[in-house]
């Protein structure tokens, strides 16, 4: 019976006979001359199945002429193949890697921010200074960099396998040499790929061949990023310690060397504790490298920074000042001139500027934030005049939100089973140490939650917080993205006595508008996440009934409550806020549908926290909110999306500058002339008003709340007389 000669069968060598051994040493036998008995159960395999060939079974896949080749023959062929592959790889890298550019001076990195339509809105270059010369630097200045970054810098040819192994096993020092890091600067991208690493190594060899070790070290120290937008050792030493690098003390040089691993995170101006921890690690590396003794390391205390302002140039816009740190953090390891598109809408920003400029603010300051429900900030105003004060009151100022905080109180109540039609006492407090009062001085036996929210009843809000519990209110605020401190057990929290930024407050309202929270405000378009990201993002939302009820209450606050001055012809939702003694006046809300929906917050106040006089949340802030929404959404409430500009490298367009159509008339009066209307803003006896002529029709807008207060004041004065 024929058997497959290629079947792998291990013979039982222990049972071999003399005949078997004879067959083992016999010459090869053609398969056609073998009998069936030769393949019997006790028969030894033919020469084709000797033990050596059984153990090297892979040879059966080779051609007949190659089965008897020795190890030397195979080794030479493998080396030749690997050499050919290496030559091809080097040739490909040489063509694609910028080898010639690696020897050129490194240009300071620059970031250009674009609006969503491609309009350049800001450019920001790095802070650089004169390059350093290694020969002029004391040994204690260069030694910390060598110890922590590349201990064998003077003993390798650009790539150090021993350094990589040491970094893997000890966690001290980086796997890349100083030459490789310098090569990375020339690549103009911080991507982490094997291709980039291969090109990096090739450029490192190239640099080692054409530059001396000191020249490489000089380039590295003169161009490395040290955080706080400082590039190069000279700029960093002047920034952090206000001294030239040639005069740095050993502990100061060690501190600077520790920043290179993560400059933005380890900068002592931002995270002094992390910088100190890294500083101690550098000292340990110096001891291990033999540069200093352990006693000297113990005597080196953490150096104190001496940061001084040195020709800090603002970008020219509040939005850009807020966005640039994030842009710089995302590209801190890149030395390219980058152009980044932001979420800012030039048309909406211009509309915000026009509305702010024509508002009768007097000496008060103003802030406005407009964003999409997903957190994309499309317009930002941080003050009346950026050139006079670049302080961003939308993101940096922390003020009391007033009654706009009541959103969290009433939403917590709805989530705990309350209904907008449920009633609560609206009587004044007569007991206890904390006795808030209603701003309008009106009280009643009881009031529905819907009406209490619309009329902004203070006593009802405090009682509701006591009923629901401050813990539930804080939990609701946290879920909507509020991170500012909120004191548990404080009844005044219901009236918005805890401070937060306008951006933080507006973002919380965006969570309600999107019914997906918390919302993260951002200046750059976010990438589209997959279904898996959506499944694990941990975002919350309101039930359909809770959302319907809270939006109904927000609408009632505008249509029949304190926010009537913000009424639009389309569905709108919002809440007024006025703090004690009218120190802050706010209006926060949203309007529009779908992708055109906007969430806008407006704040008015004085920088010294002094009272505003007659300005309240339902007055001027509500009118600013309304005017911006009308300009932004228009009658159709569906503005077209911006189209990219073909020339993002053009001149920067100023965003926070006065509108030439805004004509000041003195005494607080202003004449604003737009394409379709003329507006005269003034105030009479302390009551702000606006006279409008649009399409041949005249209208007069008066701050009813301010007029009511002025009337009550005069009645009181007349009664006293």
From TrEMBL:
Q: Pathway membership of this protein? A: Cell wall biogenesis; peptidoglycan biosynthesis
Coiled-coil boundaries: none
Q: List the biased-composition ranges (Pro residues).
A: 639-651
Q: Which UniProt keywords apply?
A: Carboxypeptidase, Glycosyltransferase, Hydrolase, Membrane, Multifunctional enzyme, Protease, Transferase, Transmembrane, Transmembrane helix
Q: Does the keyword Protein biosynthesis apply?
A: no
Key word Hydrolase present: yes
Where's the Penicillin-binding protein transpeptidase domain? 368-629
Q: Which InterPro entries match?
A: Beta-lactam/transpept-like, Glyco_trans_51, Glycosyltr_51/Transpeptidase, Lysozyme-like_dom_sf, PBP_transglycosylase, PCN-bd_Tpept
User: Pfam families given for it?
Assistant: Transgly, Transpeptidase
UniProt-listed Enzyme Commission number(s): 2.4.99.28
Transmembrane annotation, as ranges: 74-95
Q: Where is this region: Disordered?
A: 635-666
Domain Glycosyl transferase family: from-to ranges: 126-286
Reaction it catalyzes: [GlcNAc-(1->4)-Mur2Ac(oyl-L-Ala-gamma-D-Glu-L-Lys-D-Ala-D-Ala)](n)-di-trans,octa-cis-undecaprenyl diphosphate + beta-D-GlcNAc-(1->4)-Mur2Ac(oyl-L-Ala-gamma-D-Glu-L-Lys-D-Ala-D-Ala)-di-trans,octa-cis-undecaprenyl diphosphate = [GlcNAc-(1->4)-Mur2Ac(oyl-L-Ala-gamma-D-Glu-L-Lys-D-Ala-D-Ala)](n+1)-di-trans,octa-cis-undecaprenyl diphosphate + di-trans,octa-cis-undecaprenyl diphosphate + H(+)
PANTHER family the record matches? BINDING PROTEIN TRANSPEPTIDASE, PUTATIVE-RELATED (PTHR32282), PEPTIDOGLYCAN GLYCOSYLTRANSFERASE (PTHR32282:SF33)
Query: What protein family is recorded?
Result: In the C-terminal section; belongs to the transpeptidase family. In the N-terminal section; belongs to the glycosyltransferase 51 family.
Q: What is this protein called?
A: peptidoglycan glycosyltransferase
